[in-house]
Amino acid sequence: MTDMVEIQNLAKRYESGFEALKGVSLNIREGEILALLGPNGAGKTTLISTVCGITLPTDGTIKVGGFDTITQYRQARSLIGLVPQEIHLEPFETVWNAVNYSRGLFGKKRNTKLVEDILRKLSLWDKKDSRSMELSGGMKRRVLIAKALAHEPRVLFLDEPTAGVDVELRRDMWKVVEDLRAQGVTIILTTHYIEEAEAIADRIGVINKGQILLVEETGALMKRLGKKTLRIELHDAVAAIPEALASYGLTLEDAGQTIVYDYDTNAERTGIVRLMADLAEAGLVLRDIQTKQNSLEDIFVDLVHKQQEGAA
């Protein structure tokens, strides 16, 4: 598969000395959805802004569709659509004019059918003659998306596109994303809704403190790093884990009423059968057992925590 976005050794340093990006290298394939996860201040928006040409890199190179974003910025920028976090719209402009104007900025000929189709998909058609100042926050977010799609980009950046919006917009947004992927558009999104990334992304990237910690296929990542948790509710609470069970690394919760056992689903043996026998041997009576698969959020938090421990 062809790489649509190629980022090599990208760095962004400010006059204060702060490094927002530290040697980031990342290739993004044509037609894939890449979810970029990271805590606030991790460098997600800086990375997107640098690829889109909003801010200039200190070091490194970026190519979009084979075009260098510095030496061939017009060609590269024409391939990119961006939906930013912040909502900035001309308050007195109508939705129809705003979207058509955005298309014109890229030298595209007027295409009323295309614009109408975009507005209808985003449930904006009945608002086409409304001024931006008359729209709700959710509707303004839809206009930003429409503007980003107006010039038919081949790479679409979505920076927290569903933050603070209603369920209907989130549903419409992901319908549009799926349609664009079917057309071969490359999509890079940042989101705080980790369940969304897990559900729709082909690959997951984790960034923190300006560094890429991991980029991996979503399914493979869940399989490799995913763990299961066995929660064992006891008939009677205990004050401490019996000494005979120390080797299992068990923890107590719910005031000693629940024993928690983490195990690797990919291991040859999970140890559950032996644990059950040893619990009985220790005289513990079980009331209920539940299992829980680690989510992408659990994996993400663990990765960030390990990086912070390493830097300490």
UniProtKB/TrEMBL annotation:
Cross-referenced InterPro entries: AAA+_ATPase, ABC_transporter-like_ATP-bd, ABC_transporter-like_CS, ABC_transporter_ATP-binding, P-loop_NTPase
The protein, known as: Daunorubicin/doxorubicin resistance ATP-binding protein DrrA
Native organism: Pseudoprimorskyibacter insulae
Keyword field: ATP-binding, Hydrolase, Nucleotide-binding, Transport
Record-linked SUPFAM superfamilies: P-loop containing nucleoside triphosphate hydrolases
GO molecular function: ATP binding; ATP hydrolysis activity
A Pfam entry, by short name: ABC_tran
PANTHER family, alphabetized: ABC TRANSPORTER ATP-BINDING PROTEIN
Protein EC: 3.6.3.-
Boundaries of every ABC transporter domain copy: 5-234
